[in-house]
Amino acid sequence: MRILIIADDLSGAADCAIGFASAGLQTVVTLDPLHDKADAQVIAADTDTRRLTPAQAAERTLAAYKALHQPGQRLYKKIDSTLRGNWAAEVAALQPLAGLAIVAPAFPATGRTLRGGRVWVNGQPLETTDTWKLENGDRPADIEAMLVDAGLSTAKLGLDTLRGDKHLLERRIAEVAGSGTQALIVDAQTEDDLLTLARLTASMEQPLFWIGSGGLAREIASLAGVSEAGFTASEPAALERSQAPILILVGSLSGVCERQCALLKERGGVSELVVPPEVLRQGTTHADWALWQSQIGDQLDGWSDLLLRIGRDEAFDPQEGAQLSTRLALLVEPHFAKVGGLIATGGETARAILTTVGIDSLQLLTEIEAGVAFARPTVSRQGHRPGIVTKAGAFGTDHALYAAWQHLSESADRSSPQRTRIQGLQ
After folding, report:
1. How far apart (Å, rounded) are the C-alpha atoms in residues 117 and 184?
2. Which residue has the higher pLDDT, 139 or 398?
3. SS3 state at 282
4. Which pLDDT tens digit goes with each residue over 181-205?
5. What start-end ranges are recorded for coiled-coil regions in this protein (predicted)?
6. Domains and CATH numbers, the chain
7. Positive or negative torsion for Cα 411, 363, 307, 371
8. What are phi and psi of 62, to 5 degrees?
9. Is pLDDT of 239 > 50?
10. In 3-state terms, what secondary structure has residue 24?
11. At what angle do helices 400-410 and 255-268 cross, to 10 degrees?
12. 10 and 347 in contact (C-beta within 8 Å)?
Protein backbone atom coordinates (compact mmCIF):
# COMPACT_ATOMS: atom_id res chain seq x y z
CA MET A 1 0.00 0.00 0.00
CA ARG A 2 1.27 3.42 -0.98
CA ILE A 3 -0.02 6.44 0.92
CA LEU A 4 -0.38 10.09 -0.05
CA ILE A 5 -0.97 12.41 2.89
CA ILE A 6 -2.10 15.97 2.24
CA ALA A 7 -1.80 18.34 5.21
CA ASP A 8 -2.36 22.05 5.63
CA ASP A 9 0.77 22.74 7.69
CA LEU A 10 4.24 21.29 8.15
CA SER A 11 4.08 20.03 11.73
CA GLY A 12 0.78 18.34 10.88
CA ALA A 13 2.26 16.63 7.83
CA ALA A 14 5.12 15.32 9.95
CA ASP A 15 3.13 14.16 12.96
CA CYS A 16 0.67 12.38 10.67
CA ALA A 17 3.34 10.66 8.59
CA ILE A 18 5.73 9.72 11.40
CA GLY A 19 3.70 6.62 12.27
CA PHE A 20 4.53 5.18 8.83
CA ALA A 21 8.24 5.90 9.28
CA SER A 22 8.13 4.23 12.70
CA ALA A 23 6.51 1.19 11.04
CA GLY A 24 9.53 0.87 8.75
CA LEU A 25 8.28 2.69 5.66
CA GLN A 26 10.28 5.12 3.58
CA THR A 27 8.51 8.38 4.42
CA VAL A 28 9.13 11.85 3.02
CA VAL A 29 7.56 15.22 3.82
CA THR A 30 7.58 17.76 1.00
CA LEU A 31 7.09 21.51 1.37
CA ASP A 32 6.70 21.97 -2.39
CA PRO A 33 4.09 19.48 -3.58
CA LEU A 34 3.59 21.05 -7.00
CA HIS A 35 7.24 20.69 -8.01
CA ASP A 36 8.84 18.09 -5.75
CA LYS A 37 9.23 14.74 -7.52
CA ALA A 38 9.44 12.79 -4.26
CA ASP A 39 9.31 9.02 -4.66
CA ALA A 40 8.63 7.15 -1.43
CA GLN A 41 6.20 4.62 -0.01
CA VAL A 42 4.60 7.42 1.97
CA ILE A 43 4.59 11.02 0.76
CA ALA A 44 3.24 13.74 3.05
CA ALA A 45 2.63 17.10 1.37
CA ASP A 46 2.37 20.38 3.23
CA THR A 47 0.09 22.65 1.19
CA ASP A 48 0.43 25.55 3.67
CA THR A 49 -3.24 26.45 3.35
CA ARG A 50 -4.31 27.11 6.92
CA ARG A 51 -4.31 30.90 6.56
CA LEU A 52 -5.81 31.04 3.06
CA THR A 53 -9.46 31.57 2.19
CA PRO A 54 -11.51 28.37 1.89
CA ALA A 55 -11.64 28.70 -1.90
CA GLN A 56 -7.88 29.21 -2.17
CA ALA A 57 -7.22 26.31 0.18
CA ALA A 58 -9.49 24.00 -1.79
CA GLU A 59 -7.80 24.93 -5.08
CA ARG A 60 -4.28 24.38 -3.74
CA THR A 61 -5.22 21.09 -2.08
CA LEU A 62 -6.72 19.75 -5.29
CA ALA A 63 -3.64 20.86 -7.25
CA ALA A 64 -1.37 19.00 -4.81
CA TYR A 65 -3.46 15.85 -5.15
CA LYS A 66 -3.33 15.96 -8.95
CA ALA A 67 0.42 16.59 -8.92
CA LEU A 68 1.33 13.79 -6.53
CA HIS A 69 -1.35 11.10 -6.80
CA GLN A 70 -0.26 7.82 -8.37
CA PRO A 71 -2.22 4.70 -9.37
CA GLY A 72 -2.83 2.37 -6.45
CA GLN A 73 -2.10 5.03 -3.89
CA ARG A 74 -4.45 5.58 -0.93
CA LEU A 75 -5.30 9.13 0.15
CA TYR A 76 -5.19 10.46 3.70
CA LYS A 77 -6.29 14.06 4.23
CA LYS A 78 -4.64 15.20 7.42
CA ILE A 79 -6.66 17.71 9.41
CA ASP A 80 -6.00 19.44 12.71
CA SER A 81 -7.51 17.50 15.62
CA THR A 82 -8.90 20.79 16.95
CA LEU A 83 -10.46 21.65 13.56
CA ARG A 84 -8.33 24.67 12.71
CA GLY A 85 -7.96 25.82 9.13
CA ASN A 86 -10.01 25.21 5.96
CA TRP A 87 -10.23 21.46 6.31
CA ALA A 88 -13.89 21.12 5.31
CA ALA A 89 -13.41 23.02 2.04
CA GLU A 90 -10.34 20.90 1.30
CA VAL A 91 -12.23 17.67 1.93
CA ALA A 92 -15.04 18.88 -0.32
CA ALA A 93 -12.53 19.53 -3.11
CA LEU A 94 -11.06 16.03 -2.86
CA GLN A 95 -14.26 14.04 -2.35
CA PRO A 96 -15.47 13.86 -5.98
CA LEU A 97 -12.16 12.25 -6.96
CA ALA A 98 -11.52 10.10 -3.90
CA GLY A 99 -14.92 8.75 -2.82
CA LEU A 100 -16.51 8.56 0.62
CA ALA A 101 -14.78 10.74 3.20
CA ILE A 102 -14.18 8.81 6.45
CA VAL A 103 -13.90 11.65 8.97
CA ALA A 104 -12.20 10.64 12.24
CA PRO A 105 -10.03 13.42 13.72
CA ALA A 106 -9.62 11.80 17.16
CA PHE A 107 -6.08 11.46 18.52
CA PRO A 108 -6.45 9.72 21.89
CA ALA A 109 -2.70 9.71 22.58
CA THR A 110 -2.83 13.50 22.77
CA GLY A 111 -6.16 13.76 24.58
CA ARG A 112 -8.34 14.44 21.51
CA THR A 113 -11.46 12.29 21.23
CA LEU A 114 -14.74 12.39 19.29
CA ARG A 115 -18.11 11.75 20.92
CA GLY A 116 -21.49 12.52 19.40
CA GLY A 117 -19.68 14.01 16.42
CA ARG A 118 -18.04 16.64 18.66
CA VAL A 119 -14.36 17.04 19.57
CA TRP A 120 -13.25 16.78 23.19
CA VAL A 121 -9.79 17.84 24.40
CA ASN A 122 -8.65 16.15 27.61
CA GLY A 123 -12.28 15.69 28.58
CA GLN A 124 -13.38 19.25 27.78
CA PRO A 125 -15.53 20.35 24.82
CA LEU A 126 -13.29 21.88 22.17
CA GLU A 127 -15.24 25.17 22.27
CA THR A 128 -14.13 25.75 25.87
CA THR A 129 -10.39 25.46 25.16
CA ASP A 130 -7.97 28.37 24.71
CA THR A 131 -6.82 26.80 21.42
CA TRP A 132 -10.30 27.19 19.91
CA LYS A 133 -11.11 30.57 21.49
CA LEU A 134 -7.85 32.13 20.25
CA GLU A 135 -8.87 31.81 16.61
CA ASN A 136 -12.59 31.10 16.53
CA GLY A 137 -14.24 33.18 19.25
CA ASP A 138 -17.78 31.95 19.90
CA ARG A 139 -18.12 29.94 16.66
CA PRO A 140 -19.25 26.36 17.46
CA ALA A 141 -16.86 23.49 16.80
CA ASP A 142 -19.41 21.39 14.91
CA ILE A 143 -17.93 18.91 12.43
CA GLU A 144 -21.20 18.12 10.69
CA ALA A 145 -22.10 21.80 10.27
CA MET A 146 -18.67 22.55 8.81
CA LEU A 147 -18.99 19.75 6.25
CA VAL A 148 -22.54 20.73 5.32
CA ASP A 149 -21.46 24.36 4.87
CA ALA A 150 -18.77 23.08 2.49
CA GLY A 151 -21.47 21.38 0.40
CA LEU A 152 -21.16 17.77 1.58
CA SER A 153 -23.90 15.40 2.69
CA THR A 154 -23.10 13.60 5.94
CA ALA A 155 -23.86 10.61 8.15
CA LYS A 156 -22.61 9.64 11.61
CA LEU A 157 -21.20 6.44 13.06
CA GLY A 158 -21.44 6.15 16.86
CA LEU A 159 -19.33 4.14 19.28
CA ASP A 160 -21.98 1.45 19.78
CA THR A 161 -21.89 0.59 16.08
CA LEU A 162 -18.10 0.91 15.81
CA ARG A 163 -17.57 -1.43 18.76
CA GLY A 164 -20.34 -3.85 17.78
CA ASP A 165 -20.54 -6.72 15.32
CA LYS A 166 -17.89 -6.42 12.61
CA HIS A 167 -20.21 -7.53 9.80
CA LEU A 168 -22.91 -5.07 10.82
CA LEU A 169 -20.28 -2.32 10.96
CA GLU A 170 -19.02 -3.16 7.49
CA ARG A 171 -22.58 -3.26 6.16
CA ARG A 172 -23.31 0.14 7.71
CA ILE A 173 -20.31 1.80 6.05
CA ALA A 174 -21.11 0.13 2.73
CA GLU A 175 -24.70 1.37 2.96
CA VAL A 176 -23.52 4.93 3.59
CA ALA A 177 -21.16 4.74 0.62
CA GLY A 178 -23.85 3.25 -1.61
CA SER A 179 -26.42 5.86 -0.65
CA GLY A 180 -24.39 8.67 -2.20
CA THR A 181 -23.56 10.21 1.18
CA GLN A 182 -20.25 12.03 0.84
CA ALA A 183 -18.85 12.11 4.39
CA LEU A 184 -19.12 9.72 7.34
CA ILE A 185 -18.26 11.18 10.77
CA VAL A 186 -16.89 8.47 13.08
CA ASP A 187 -16.76 8.71 16.88
CA ALA A 188 -13.62 7.36 18.58
CA GLN A 189 -12.33 7.56 22.14
CA THR A 190 -9.51 5.03 22.19
CA GLU A 191 -6.73 3.81 19.96
CA ASP A 192 -8.59 0.50 19.66
CA ASP A 193 -11.57 2.38 18.21
CA LEU A 194 -9.34 3.88 15.54
CA LEU A 195 -7.65 0.54 14.87
CA THR A 196 -11.05 -1.07 14.29
CA LEU A 197 -11.91 1.66 11.80
CA ALA A 198 -8.52 1.39 10.08
CA ARG A 199 -8.71 -2.38 9.66
CA LEU A 200 -12.16 -2.32 8.17
CA THR A 201 -11.82 0.63 5.81
CA ALA A 202 -8.36 -0.40 4.55
CA SER A 203 -9.85 -3.65 3.26
CA MET A 204 -13.05 -2.26 1.73
CA GLU A 205 -13.47 -2.11 -2.02
CA GLN A 206 -15.66 1.00 -2.05
CA PRO A 207 -13.83 4.19 -3.08
CA LEU A 208 -13.01 6.09 0.09
CA PHE A 209 -10.34 8.23 1.70
CA TRP A 210 -9.46 9.01 5.27
CA ILE A 211 -9.75 12.38 7.01
CA GLY A 212 -8.04 12.51 10.37
CA SER A 213 -5.13 13.58 12.52
CA GLY A 214 -2.08 11.58 13.49
CA GLY A 215 -4.26 9.21 15.53
CA LEU A 216 -5.98 7.31 12.72
CA ALA A 217 -2.85 7.51 10.58
CA ARG A 218 -0.72 5.60 13.07
CA GLU A 219 -3.33 2.82 13.27
CA ILE A 220 -3.35 2.50 9.48
CA ALA A 221 0.45 2.34 9.57
CA SER A 222 0.32 -0.49 12.11
CA LEU A 223 -1.64 -2.80 9.84
CA ALA A 224 0.30 -5.86 8.72
CA GLY A 225 -0.26 -5.18 5.05
CA VAL A 226 1.36 -1.79 5.42
CA SER A 227 4.19 -2.70 7.77
CA GLU A 228 5.43 -5.55 5.58
CA ALA A 229 6.31 -3.22 2.72
CA GLY A 230 10.03 -3.83 3.27
CA PHE A 231 11.41 -0.31 3.64
CA THR A 232 13.68 0.78 6.45
CA ALA A 233 13.71 4.33 7.75
CA SER A 234 17.32 5.02 8.66
CA GLU A 235 19.53 8.05 8.95
CA PRO A 236 21.64 8.96 5.90
CA ALA A 237 24.99 7.28 6.49
CA ALA A 238 27.07 10.14 5.16
CA LEU A 239 26.01 12.57 7.88
CA GLU A 240 28.61 13.40 10.49
CA ARG A 241 27.76 13.80 14.14
CA SER A 242 27.65 17.40 15.20
CA GLN A 243 29.07 19.20 18.20
CA ALA A 244 27.19 22.38 17.38
CA PRO A 245 24.45 23.88 19.58
CA ILE A 246 20.74 23.12 19.40
CA LEU A 247 18.30 25.85 18.39
CA ILE A 248 14.71 25.68 19.62
CA LEU A 249 12.34 27.96 17.71
CA VAL A 250 8.92 28.57 19.26
CA GLY A 251 6.21 30.48 17.46
CA SER A 252 3.21 29.06 19.32
CA LEU A 253 1.58 31.00 22.15
CA SER A 254 -0.53 28.14 23.48
CA GLY A 255 -0.62 27.38 27.19
CA VAL A 256 0.69 23.89 26.42
CA CYS A 257 3.75 25.36 24.73
CA GLU A 258 4.33 27.79 27.61
CA ARG A 259 4.58 24.89 30.03
CA GLN A 260 6.86 22.98 27.67
CA CYS A 261 9.23 25.95 27.42
CA ALA A 262 9.29 26.40 31.20
CA LEU A 263 10.21 22.76 31.77
CA LEU A 264 12.88 22.85 29.06
CA LYS A 265 14.54 25.87 30.68
CA GLU A 266 14.33 24.31 34.13
CA ARG A 267 15.73 20.90 33.23
CA GLY A 268 17.86 21.66 30.17
CA GLY A 269 19.33 24.94 31.36
CA VAL A 270 19.18 26.35 27.84
CA SER A 271 19.57 30.04 27.13
CA GLU A 272 16.48 32.03 26.13
CA LEU A 273 15.77 35.01 23.94
CA VAL A 274 12.24 36.39 23.49
CA VAL A 275 11.98 38.62 20.42
CA PRO A 276 9.37 41.41 20.73
CA PRO A 277 6.67 41.22 18.05
CA GLU A 278 7.33 44.84 17.14
CA VAL A 279 10.85 43.98 16.00
CA LEU A 280 9.47 41.23 13.78
CA ARG A 281 6.67 43.39 12.40
CA GLN A 282 9.11 46.04 11.19
CA GLY A 283 11.79 43.58 10.14
CA THR A 284 15.08 44.94 8.87
CA THR A 285 13.87 48.52 9.24
CA HIS A 286 13.59 48.23 13.03
CA ALA A 287 16.37 50.02 14.89
CA ASP A 288 17.23 46.90 16.92
CA TRP A 289 17.10 44.35 14.09
CA ALA A 290 20.87 44.07 13.66
CA LEU A 291 21.35 43.92 17.43
CA TRP A 292 18.95 41.00 17.77
CA GLN A 293 20.57 39.20 14.85
CA SER A 294 23.99 39.70 16.44
CA GLN A 295 22.81 38.48 19.83
CA ILE A 296 21.46 35.25 18.30
CA GLY A 297 24.81 34.71 16.56
CA ASP A 298 26.75 35.36 19.77
CA GLN A 299 24.73 32.73 21.62
CA LEU A 300 25.29 30.09 18.97
CA ASP A 301 28.97 31.01 18.65
CA GLY A 302 29.23 30.47 22.39
CA TRP A 303 28.04 26.84 22.02
CA SER A 304 24.93 27.65 24.03
CA ASP A 305 21.74 25.81 23.17
CA LEU A 306 19.22 28.56 22.50
CA LEU A 307 15.45 28.80 23.01
CA LEU A 308 14.30 31.55 20.64
CA ARG A 309 10.69 32.66 21.04
CA ILE A 310 8.25 35.14 19.59
CA GLY A 311 6.95 37.44 22.31
CA ARG A 312 3.45 38.77 22.70
CA ASP A 313 2.11 42.29 23.15
CA GLU A 314 -1.26 44.04 23.21
CA ALA A 315 -1.23 44.47 19.44
CA PHE A 316 -0.72 40.76 18.77
CA ASP A 317 -3.08 39.18 16.23
CA PRO A 318 -3.09 35.39 15.61
CA GLN A 319 -3.47 36.13 11.89
CA GLU A 320 0.03 37.63 11.78
CA GLY A 321 1.65 34.38 12.88
CA ALA A 322 3.07 33.50 9.45
CA GLN A 323 4.60 36.94 9.00
CA LEU A 324 6.22 36.92 12.44
CA SER A 325 7.56 33.40 11.90
CA THR A 326 9.07 34.41 8.55
CA ARG A 327 10.83 37.38 10.14
CA LEU A 328 12.09 35.19 12.97
CA ALA A 329 13.57 32.86 10.36
CA LEU A 330 15.31 35.81 8.70
CA LEU A 331 16.94 36.66 12.02
CA VAL A 332 18.30 33.12 12.23
CA GLU A 333 19.30 32.60 8.59
CA PRO A 334 22.85 34.10 8.74
CA HIS A 335 23.67 31.76 11.65
CA PHE A 336 21.91 28.58 10.56
CA ALA A 337 25.15 26.81 9.58
CA LYS A 338 26.18 26.97 13.25
CA VAL A 339 23.16 24.92 14.34
CA GLY A 340 23.72 21.24 15.09
CA GLY A 341 20.07 20.46 15.73
CA LEU A 342 16.78 22.31 15.24
CA ILE A 343 13.48 22.03 17.10
CA ALA A 344 10.63 23.99 15.54
CA THR A 345 7.32 24.33 17.38
CA GLY A 346 4.31 25.40 15.33
CA GLY A 347 3.76 24.53 11.67
CA GLU A 348 4.20 28.10 10.47
CA THR A 349 7.45 28.45 12.40
CA ALA A 350 8.83 25.17 11.06
CA ARG A 351 7.93 25.98 7.48
CA ALA A 352 9.34 29.50 7.72
CA ILE A 353 12.78 28.44 8.91
CA LEU A 354 13.11 25.50 6.50
CA THR A 355 12.07 27.43 3.39
CA THR A 356 14.24 30.39 4.40
CA VAL A 357 17.37 28.22 4.67
CA GLY A 358 16.59 26.22 1.52
CA ILE A 359 15.23 22.92 2.82
CA ASP A 360 12.25 21.69 0.79
CA SER A 361 11.80 18.12 2.00
CA LEU A 362 12.49 15.91 5.00
CA GLN A 363 13.03 12.21 5.51
CA LEU A 364 11.16 11.19 8.65
CA LEU A 365 13.08 8.87 10.95
CA THR A 366 11.41 8.33 14.30
CA GLU A 367 8.79 9.59 16.73
CA ILE A 368 10.01 11.04 20.02
CA GLU A 369 6.55 11.10 21.56
CA ALA A 370 3.06 11.32 20.08
CA GLY A 371 3.04 14.12 17.51
CA VAL A 372 6.76 14.92 17.87
CA ALA A 373 8.73 13.85 14.78
CA PHE A 374 12.50 13.61 14.20
CA ALA A 375 13.77 14.01 10.63
CA ARG A 376 16.73 14.92 8.40
CA PRO A 377 16.63 17.14 5.30
CA THR A 378 16.74 15.05 2.14
CA VAL A 379 18.54 17.89 0.37
CA SER A 380 19.62 21.38 1.41
CA ARG A 381 20.60 24.24 -0.86
CA GLN A 382 23.11 25.34 1.78
CA GLY A 383 24.47 21.82 2.15
CA HIS A 384 23.72 21.86 5.90
CA ARG A 385 21.54 18.98 7.12
CA PRO A 386 21.08 19.04 10.89
CA GLY A 387 18.66 16.82 12.76
CA ILE A 388 15.23 18.46 12.85
CA VAL A 389 12.32 17.97 15.26
CA THR A 390 8.87 19.37 14.45
CA LYS A 391 5.92 19.66 16.82
CA ALA A 392 2.52 21.31 16.63
CA GLY A 393 2.31 24.17 19.10
CA ALA A 394 -0.61 22.95 21.20
CA PHE A 395 0.47 19.29 21.14
CA GLY A 396 2.47 17.10 23.44
CA THR A 397 3.06 16.50 27.11
CA ASP A 398 4.64 19.16 29.29
CA HIS A 399 8.06 17.57 28.76
CA ALA A 400 7.77 17.29 24.94
CA LEU A 401 10.32 20.03 24.18
CA TYR A 402 12.69 18.68 26.79
CA ALA A 403 12.36 15.17 25.32
CA ALA A 404 13.09 16.57 21.84
CA TRP A 405 16.12 18.44 23.16
CA GLN A 406 17.35 15.28 24.88
CA HIS A 407 16.91 13.27 21.67
CA LEU A 408 19.00 15.72 19.65
CA SER A 409 21.60 15.96 22.41
CA GLU A 410 21.98 12.20 22.72
CA SER A 411 22.00 11.53 18.96
CA ALA A 412 25.00 13.82 18.45
CA ASP A 413 28.55 13.75 19.77
CA ARG A 414 28.35 17.10 21.52
CA SER A 415 30.66 18.83 23.92
CA SER A 416 29.17 20.18 27.13
CA PRO A 417 29.03 23.94 26.70
CA GLN A 418 28.49 26.37 29.53
CA ARG A 419 24.75 27.01 29.39
CA THR A 420 23.69 30.21 31.10
CA ARG A 421 20.32 31.86 30.83
CA ILE A 422 20.42 35.36 29.39
CA GLN A 423 17.90 38.15 29.32
CA GLY A 424 16.39 39.30 26.05
CA LEU A 425 16.49 42.90 24.89
CA GLN A 426 13.75 45.03 26.31
Report:
1. 10
2. 398
3. helix
4. 999 999 999 999 999 999 999 999 8
5. none
6. 2-227 (3.40.50.10840), 246-410 (3.40.980.20)
7. negative
8. -65, -40
9. no
10. coil
11. 40
12. yes
